[in-house]
Amino acid sequence: MVSVLPPLASIFVTTIASQFADNLIANGVETTTVRKICQTIAFLSPAACMTLSSLDLGLPPWEIVGILTGGLALSSFALSGLYCTHQDMSPEYASILLGITNTVGAVPGIIGVALTGSLLDSTHSWSLSLFAPSIFFYLTGTIVWLAFASSKPQSFSKMD
Length: 160
Description:
The structure is a single chain. It is built from 6 helices and no strands. With 160 residues, the chain is mainly α. Helix 2 (31-54) packs antiparallel against helix 4 and helix 5 packs antiparallel against helix 6 (126-148).
């Protein structure tokens, strides 16, 4: 029952994220800047919530569930970040670009399951085996995204 909370909260957050991004663009904020803001929220929110959940703050389990639900729901800002960037870059090839990024993004998910299991077996700690690597990759992803992401239109089909 608890596992349904993040997806339900994501529905609500998605409507906020899309309106937030559209409002920024309508007010003249550069598209790349909007995408970077939204994706940064999508990466840093779960990282912060996982960090809070990892600490022994003496919180009851339902509060930890609430914190994690909020963090995972805020990751829906990626729908106004990364997932719009493909369309911004090339409406003609957006589906191919999304396929490539999803494929590359799936590889860590596959490897991460085995890594998490191995770390859990050796540390017996969810904080060290699940949260620490996730937080690391969220932070690394934020740095890479901020340094290299662009929504600048590309002409992949142009012949030079």
